[in-house]
Design a protein that fits this description.
The chain is of the alpha/beta class. Helix content is 39%, strand content 11%. It has a domain at 2-87 and 179-250 and 444-522: Alpha/Beta hydrolase fold, catalytic domain (Rossmann fold, 3-Layer(aba) Sandwich), CATH 3.40.50.1820. It has a 9-stranded mixed β-sheet, sandwiched between helices.
Length: 530
Amino acid sequence: MECARLIVPLDYQDPDNGLEAIIPIVKYPTNATGANYKGAVLTNPGGPGYLGTEFIYNPGISSLIANNVTGPGYDILGFDIRGVGYSVPYGSCNITADELFDPLRQNATEGNSFTKRNTRRLKSGIAIPAGAKETETSPYGFFIPELPPSFLGQAAAQADDFIAQCIAYTGADNQAGPHMNTVVTATDMLWIARALARARGQNDTNALVHFYGISYGTVLGQTFATLYPNHVGKFVLDGVVNMDGWQTRTETDIVRNADEGFFEFFKRCFAAGPKKCAFATGMCYQDTINRFNRMMSRFNATEAEVQGSGLALPLTALIAQLRSTILDSLYASIDSWEGLAWIFNALDKATRGPILRWNVTEITTIITTPLSPPSSSSRAPAPLQLRGYSFFQTACGDAPSIYNYSVTPVEVYTYLKASAISGHARLIGRVTCSRYSIRPKWEWSEKIGGKTKTPILFFGNTLDPVTPWDDAVRAAQKFPGAEAVVVDLIAHSTFAQRNTCAVKKLIAYFQQGKLPGANFKCAEELRPFS
């Protein structure tokens, strides 16, 4: 591995103000030389908030990219986006819990010439608006308990606490907050490519960026391709985010496949039988769903809150954690679903007695049990340090401000009906952005698309829980010459899923510039519980 730091202007709209940012970079070098050397591929693992440096510093991940994405001849590079990881200035909003916090990294590197902070008052807590009952029964027949009426107010209060810290530690013009939107990081990518060209003694004017972006990395990639189309080299965007929703923070549509993906768990669990799926029961898959629903009906936080029993908060926390565990399993069903079945089976047994006798610590341990072993070959290790607030610092800045906006009953209903598993998380995201007052120095929300120097290749999975496959197809239509591959997978992105068809299309593109043909489809190969 090789490491470097690139100094760039803190503010590309005012590059001569004397303030600089530092972009950390890690390289997994190729052994290729001469004519066999094909260039450097920048990567982004998603988030926003995952550390690109740690992503590539992990030898299992970097070698997987070299072998199953790009093929030989490329250096593989990871870098931390603005405000994240080892970048300067650092965007930490939680100095007590953030192991990477360093007060010396909170400000830009050249002095402290801007000191004015954003001090607008924060709004008070809110509750679910009248008439917006939260219902969590999926059209696929499974049931996840309601969160109590106070949950939205709790989310708003947590957002207020987080935003107050963000303003205090990142809100000044010489700090990270006003420079964490995607257009800035996209421009950093161009600066990295130009620096690489200069290092090889080449003219940097026409430097090309080769890129592999996953999830949020597809936001970064689409933004770059729109801004700098003549600098687009080999570009693969995998697990494609719908930019229309991203740029408006109205993302009810992106979770439309989550519930259907979870429905597949019950069908495949029953088909596999109890020897491979510990939660399987009965004479048909509906019996397995019914067992799940009976178990979930015990987690009634709404009733506990109405009765004032004191159990509402722990039950709410358990429901939220269980949702997170289910959603996480949908990111890589092949390796996760046996573990998810074990969790459900253990949870069913642990919650059969009176609720006052539940061992909350034991139940929490069950729900948070790892879904798959760390050595799993098809489930890549998660990059270090995904900070939840990093997501909002970037995402809220990528859309026009909705500060002081109040969610309506119709919006609440729409978000919660979009997915029983993750609709509430998207609603909390909108609530958080409605409280987030820091605005980018470089506001940018232009229409995405345009002809690029090199055609882009998009990938989408048939049952991706957060980036539906047809968003990959729609994105390809915005960039003339681009193509999309649809892979029959229950997973988020094709990365590390061992679909040989997808791997062949990736390598053919990076090695030969070969596109697969419009809307090419890869069949399912490995299956959960197989």
